[in-house]
Design the sequence.
């Protein structure tokens, strides 16, 4: 049997499997089956933990979307893993090795974590986009801006909070020809210099109650357009995150809750390989 933790950040939920001492047969098809809310455990993303091999890291974290595809980053899951490792180690400061680099995380207080999400990549090839263009104004209806937070994001700024239905627009926009690796689609409505409302259609997972990297991307893109200050509260369906894009070194800090819902076990052999 394989043990797991069910965790969430603002309702964006994860199945976390510890592979630091033993590897499990977790193929993309099996991960997708485990993510299914009707016939599996059910989650937005699947997370595995392995021994770190990078300097300054305590654990190597891999993120998988609900369709079994791998993602380079997941902000809410990073907070959850940081909370777990901090409780294990008794240290408030931990390092997470990810495909997007080593992220430094700080336990602010029990259940609340700040993650340094690094420097956003603003170049068209880094997002990536299909061809050279200005990432601040993509040649698409709705005039989105694009940035990478370790995974590709396109942010649409709406005049009203319900100006676009993510469940209608999201599936098509995720697969737009400009996004060779697909994209997370953020629908943002700026309410003041220090706040915005955001919904995110996540590539490979669909509409989630919160998206940490999407909140970071939305604030970065809003700052680039002069719409908000460098510290901004992002309200999503599941709650609020505090995002700061530092001006001195360009790093993005994300602060929010991390919650363990329950633990359990499953047999990988019960799911299609």
Sequence:
């Amino acid at each position: 049997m394989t043990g797991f933790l069910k965790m969430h950040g603002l309702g964006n939920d994860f199945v976390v499997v510890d592979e630091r001492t033993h590897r499990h047969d977790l193929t993309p098809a099996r991960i997708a089956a485990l993510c299914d809310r009707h016939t599996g455990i059910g989650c937005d993303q699947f997370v595995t933990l392995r021994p770190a091999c990078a300097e300054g890291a305590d654990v190597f974290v891999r993120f998988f979307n609900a369709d079994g595809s791998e993602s380079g980053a997941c902000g809410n899951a990073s907070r959850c893993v940081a909370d777990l490792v901090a409780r294990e180690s008794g240290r408030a400061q931990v390092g997470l090795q990810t495909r997007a680099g080593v992220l430094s995380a700080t336990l602010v207080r029990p259940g609340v974590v700040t993650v340094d999400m690094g420097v956003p990549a603003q170049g068209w090839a880094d997002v990536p986009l299909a061809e050279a263009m200005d990432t601040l104004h993509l040649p698409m209806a709705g005039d989105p801006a694009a940035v990478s937070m370790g995974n590709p994001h396109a942010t649409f700024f709406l005049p009203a909070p319900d100006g676009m239905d993510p469940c209608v627009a999201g599936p098509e926009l995720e697969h737009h020809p400009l996004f060779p690796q697909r994209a997370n689609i953020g629908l943002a409505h700026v309410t003041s210099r220090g706040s915005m409302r955001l919904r995110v259609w996540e590539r490979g997972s669909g509409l989630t109650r919160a998206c940490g990297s999407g909140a970071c991307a939305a604030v970065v893109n809003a700052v680039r357009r002069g719409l908000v200050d460098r510290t901004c509260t992002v309200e999503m369906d599941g709650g609020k995150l505090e995002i700061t894009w530092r001006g001195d070194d360009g790093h993005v800090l994300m602060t929010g809750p991390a919650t363990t819902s329950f633990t359990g076990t499953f047999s990988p052999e019960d799911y299609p390989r």
